[in-house]
């Protein structure tokens, strides 16, 4: 059951700056834990999309916990949870009464090239994009192959510890690209290309740049490698 009471908690109000996939996920967790959330977004349209996603997520949690469709009583609990969500387009109003502030805004990342998981993950994602670009395999085959391969690797204990702990491979690489955001991946590539110009892995990726230029950034724009 989703707990929508925060009366006993010392920190009752959380401000979440950013209403994308990450911001929506953080908000859902906070609401489920009984906090009131001030959610900041740049437009009412984006905020309403986030609210819809959060409501869907809360319903999915209840359904998974019970294994049965949500009852009218549980729908009321979800409604109570959503009622603890305040949608804000003014950042000062978002943070003025907050006990905790969490930033979840997409940025142009000045990513340190030494981060272990990023250094392993991003080239892996780019290689999958280049494979699709060359026509080596379909996007469905690329995405279907990796979770199985990684499952076998886990069985035989041969998978890199950083990748196993950092990503767990819950989905294929192109689906993961859509989830992360193609613009975010492109930004990381731009930074690394400047800091490591000798590394051919970070050369421009034509297909990635094309999708970003067309505004097809993944799940947050409803279209990337897949349509959502």
UniProtKB/TrEMBL annotation:
Transmembrane parts of this sequence: none
Domain of life: Eukaryota
GO terms assigned for molecular function: (3S)-3-hydroxyacyl-CoA dehydrogenase (NAD+) activity; NAD+ binding
Annotated compartments: Mitochondrion matrix
Annotated InterPro entries: 3-OHacyl-CoA_DH, 3-OHacyl-CoA_DH_CS, 3-OHacyl-CoA_DH_NAD-bd, 3HC_DH_C, 6-PGluconate_DH-like_C_sf, 6PGD_dom2, Mito_3-hydroxyacyl-CoA_DH, NAD(P)-bd_dom_sf
Residue ranges constituting the 3-hydroxyacyl-CoA dehydrogenase C-terminal domain according to the UniProt record: 114-147, 162-228
E.C. number(s) listed in UniProt: 1.1.1.35
PROSITE patterns to which the protein is assigned, alphabetical: 3HCDH
Keywords in alphabetical order: Fatty acid metabolism, Lipid metabolism, Mitochondrion, NAD, Oxidoreductase
Listed GO CC annotations: mitochondrial matrix
Stretches assigned to the 3-hydroxyacyl-CoA dehydrogenase NAD binding domain: 14-110
Family: Belongs to the 3-hydroxyacyl-CoA dehydrogenase family.
PANTHER family: HYDROXY-ACYL-COA DEHYDROGENASE (PTHR43561:SF1), PTHR43561
Name of the protein this chain belongs to: 3-hydroxyacyl-CoA dehydrogenase
């Amino acid at each position: 059951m989703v707990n929508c009471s925060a009366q006993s908690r010392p920190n009752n109000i959380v401000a979440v700056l950013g209403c994308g996939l990450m911001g929506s996920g953080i908000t859902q967790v906070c609401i489920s834990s009984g906090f009131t959330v001030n959610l900041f977004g740049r437009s009412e349209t984006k905020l309403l999309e986030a609210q819809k996603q959060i409501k869907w997520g809360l319903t999915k949690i209840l359904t998974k916990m019970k294994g049965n469709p949500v009852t009218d009583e549980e729908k009321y609990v979800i409604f109570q949870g959503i009622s603890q969500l305040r949608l804000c387009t003014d950042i000062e109003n978002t943070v003025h009464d907050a006990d905790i502030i969490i930033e979840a805004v997409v940025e142009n990342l000045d990513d340190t090239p030494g981060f272990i998981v990023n250094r392993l993950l991003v080239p892996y994602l780019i290689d999958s994009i280049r494979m699709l670009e060359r026509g080596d395999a379909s996007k469905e085959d690329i995405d279907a192959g990796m979770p199985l391969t990684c499952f076998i690797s886990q069985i035989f204990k041969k998978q890199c510890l950083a990748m196993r702990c950092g990503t767990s491979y819950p989905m294929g690489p192109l689906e993961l690209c859509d989830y992360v955001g193609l613009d975010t991946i492109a930004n990381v590539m731009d930074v690394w290309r400047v800091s490591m110009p000798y590394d051919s892995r970070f050369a421009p990726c034509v297909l990635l740049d094309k999708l970003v230029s067309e505004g097809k950034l993944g799940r947050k724009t409803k279209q990337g490698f897949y349509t959502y």
